[in-house]
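As described in the Methods, two query proteins were run sequentially through the folding procedure within a single session, without resetting any intermediate state between them. The first query and its resulting structure tokens are shown here.
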Amino acid sequence: MPIRVYLDWNATTPLRPEARAAMVAAYDLVGNPSSVHAEGREARRLLEAARAALAGAVGGLPRNVVFTSSGTEANALALSPGLKGPSGGPVARLLVSAVEHASVLAGGRFSADAVSQIRVTRSGAVDLDHLKALLGSGPPALVSIMAANNETGALQPIAEAARIAHEAGGLLHVDAIQAFGKMPFDIKEVGVDLATLSAHKIGGPKGIGALVAAEGVTGLEPVLRGGGQELGRRAGTENVAGIAGFGAAVSAAVQALAEDAERVRSLRNRLENGLRAVPGTTIFSQEAGRLPNTTLFTAPGLKAETAVIGFDLEGIAVSSGSACSSGKVQPSHVLSAMGFDPKTAQGAVRLSLGWSTQEADINRTLEAWRKLGNNLLKG
């Protein structure tokens, strides 16, 4: 049986060898990182080494890194009324872009009536004029905008959004989960107050996330209360092995970032050229800056759920651009916010590449697309 082709890296990535090795070594440690004896101190050493790796990778300070169980939990921790920063606050409302992850659209701990959505353009970029208008119509706000969209790969004008938010006395939270490890991201350079990261999108284990705060940000209220772990910001004994794997994955991803991005972008461009051989093919957000690894496309008459199954039967893992709920495929809220009709949105298929993607994988994918096209593109 041929080896399968994995093109769903935006959903999750393979575990990097460096992360696996770090986790195996950590599993041999018996100590609790909160214990003061030698075994506890060794566990603490691994935890703090990973914290330093994350902080260094995004231009933060180790003491401002909070480990969580996931990116979703990190987002929930960040989206909290009362936050203050050097440039503003306390925040009393939340402004989120219309293309955010569901964990941000849920509003965190803000009441529903304190949450407003920021429009996006046809290319998927935040409408900065609408952001300015929203910021000028009420008390200080926390603005939450993802660095790069998980479906289209579209990059957001984070530095400009930070400037606008700060001038209005607000703060900026960035869900950087998809961008981190695929492009440079420094919270000091772009003016981010809070950034969410996740291990399994960069070759680390599933079930570990982190929130990184800029220096001077205060008012974070823990989601989980109990013990004093994470400087009182997140109770519960830390997942030392998972955190060690996270740190190792960060170091590996940062070291290979430039080389991987250039190679993957070349493969992505070749893939898109092949997809366009089918008349009427649309590549979403192609006119915008995008992550180097992400393609969201459709073609006339394409049904995403059928296409995903068809690719899977050909040995290729891809995903739908639609969100699934209780087994029912719904139009992508991202594409709907960009102004595409439900039929178009339901036909979107996402292909996402990574560091181990090869030319042969692209060849097989395009061969499968040519084979599937005659059967899928009807109506």
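Immediately afterward, the second query was submitted; its sequence and tokens are:
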Amino acid sequence: MIDLKFLRENPDLVKENIKKKFQDHKLPLVDEVIEYDKKAREAQQEADDLRAKKNQVSKQIGALMAQGKKEEAEAVKAEVAQISKRLTELEPLEKEYQDKVLEDMMKIPNIIDPSVPIGKDDTFNVENEKFGEPVVPDFEIPYHTDIMERFDGIDLDAAGKVAGNGFYYLMGDIARLHSAMTAYARDFMIGKGFTYCIPPFMIRSNVVTGVMSFEEMDAMMYKIEGEDLYLIGTSEHSMIGKFIDTINDESKLPYTLTSYSPCFRKEKGAHGIEERGVYRIHQFEKQEMIVVCKPQDSKEWYEKMWKYTVELFRSLDVPVRTLECCSGDLADLKVKSCDVEAWSPRQKKYFEVGSCSNLGDAQARRLKIRVKGEDGKKYFAHTLNNTVVAPPRMLIAFLENNLNADGSVNIPKALQPYMGGTEKLIPKH
């Protein structure tokens, strides 16, 4: 959510930003906010003036009664009654106008960074840089579930009977590999100075609306029936929520946290063959990183964070590239974002395995995450998040890039301590 004062003073800039995000249907919201904000402030000013007048006039009643001026006292009482009546009319109006302003402000997208490429959808995303040499071996690479089945490592049929489509059982070496990746990612981020955290896996609605747009919430979140609770779609939501309604000492910033959690997503819509198996699913696990920092430091942290993910993937012999997300592909709260994509030698192209985002003060403004500076003044923090690793997709990239012609899978040195020293997985079939 952007600053209301900024919108008042720069309505044309806010409208231009909406156009850059190809959300022209939201343009009327800017004028609507200005109109209702004006009404709210006028109602508040009138109410404040009336309250002051009521207090002043009320003091006269006792004095008039003491002087025996009963009729004048009654007239003043009538005036107070009229003021009270008007106040009862103004107070709900003031709240109605303020609520309307907030409702519209929650729908207006954040101001994007000037460096963001302009485009309607992800087809306009721009490749930044490649890391590692993408290789296509001279043998055929099977679909990722077929590789896993050679190790008796996955059971989709049983999961379908138990929970439906979009779920899976991982077994044996593949399950161990999955856990090894999350453990390695955890220690990797601790080594970067991040504090390890296991957060709540459910959050309340005020946290949900604090960290994402309404459109994202509807598309992603599972609600617990009869409770004000939602299953998290990604752990940065509960991690950022940890700081809700806090005033933080500037000297203690930045807060750098890395979290493990299961994640739950609706994943609506039909998906092609490449998004089946364990690519696009309703339940998965992930290692995440978040940063809460001073506004002037967020750009530097953004660069650090996506580079951590690249470093981790390269340590596991997986080539990757980064894509700069265009304006139309940015969620409403994001200032800037890039995707990290892993190389798929089977598909002969890259696919998304993580995303790094700078959200400016949008989440902090919604959740009231404030910082107290040395001068005693308070301001909103900046928040950032980034995927360290999401093992289901990482499993796909890892298996394809470390597969040998005989069906065995190499375990890079960085991961071997988490696999009991195993250097190579041998298929059972």
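The chain has a mean pLDDT of 93. We note this only descriptively and draw no conclusion about the first query from it.
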